[in-house]
Specification:
The protein is elongated. The protein has helices at 3-10, 12-33, 39-62. By secondary structure, the protein is mainly α. Helix 2 (12-33) crosses helix 3.
């Protein structure tokens, strides 16, 4: 394992917790804005939105966008 892998793996829990916090914060906002929201549907839509952005970012990585970041 190289130094970059070690660094990111050492922060894995922190990174994953931040993603979960983003998800939960947006679930709360949805519940504030739409009191009668279907939470399961909201969660599915929200995770799709997050996944869509991850897919775009993966494409950017493959295209070299972050090679000199």
């Amino acid at each position: 394992m190289d130094i970059v892998e070690k660094e990111l793996h050492s922060r894995k829990d922190e990174i994953q917790n931040e993603v979960e916090l983003l998800f939960k914060a947006n679930m709360k906002i949805t519940n504030w804005d739409v009191a009668e929201a279907d939470n399961r549907k909201a969660a599915e839509i929200l995770i799709d939105i997050i996944q869509e952005k991850i897919d775009v970012m993966r494409g950017d990585i493959n295209a070299g966008k972050y090679d000199n970041y």
